[in-house]
Design brief:
Blueprint lengths: L2 H7 L20 H15 L3 H7 L10 E2 L7 E2 L4 H4 L3
Antiparallel strand pairs: 1-2
Helix pairs in contact: 2-3
Length: 86
């Protein structure tokens, strides 16, 4: 879902991208944002941007759960699209 689509549906939380006076990513689609992050990671060599682009969109409303494998990896248990029924 796009950030703008979520806003039109009323899907917002206090701490999401709509919580500030300036909302630089609120009016663009998540696909465009991910494309920009991939471009910036490649162009400027910031690998962490690839991690951000690959992360599932989530409002982080539910606790993060460990994967149970003992590796310390954790997963979000909620995604924006799932909450909106998409």
């Amino acid at each position: 879902s796009a950030n703008v689509d979520e806003g039109l549906r009323g899907y917002m939380t206090k701490y999401d991208c709509s919580s500030a006076d300036l909302n630089p990513i609120g009016a663009i689609s998540k696909l465009d944002l991910k494309r920009m992050l991939h471009w910036a990671a490649k162009t400027y060599g910031h690998d962490v941007l690839e991690e951000i682009a690959g992360a599932p969109p989530t409002a982080e409303l539910r606790p993060i759960e460990n994967d149970g494998g003992g590796g310390g990896e954790a997963e979000h248990t909620q995604t924006d699209e799932e909450d909106m029924g998409m």
